[in-house]
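Justification of computing resources. Each target in the renewal requires a structure prediction run like the one illustrated here; the chain below, 99 residues long, is used simply to show the kind of job we budget for.
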Amino acid sequence: MTTYSFRLYVAGQTERSQAALANLRLLCESQLPDHYELEVIDVAEHPGLAAEERILATPTVVRLAPLPQRRVIGDLSDHGRTAAALGLPDRDTLPSEGW
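Resulting structure tokens:
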């Protein structure tokens, strides 16, 4: 059983930031129910962390685990492309027991 870990970098409470957060939560709840961690980082409040992680645009989501890391920039509104880019399993391939 793999737990996915994501860090979403946003710039304040903009409409685009809120859309990215809502889209990521929807995607995780539909494909990884109860098997994901999500941390939201506001780059305006934590510019050092954003620089350390080389965040060049917001919103950006980084899949921290499982490795390798993957990044997606944007509001994540295309769920199919976002899921593929983040390497999420298809809901149909998830084991039905143990999750």
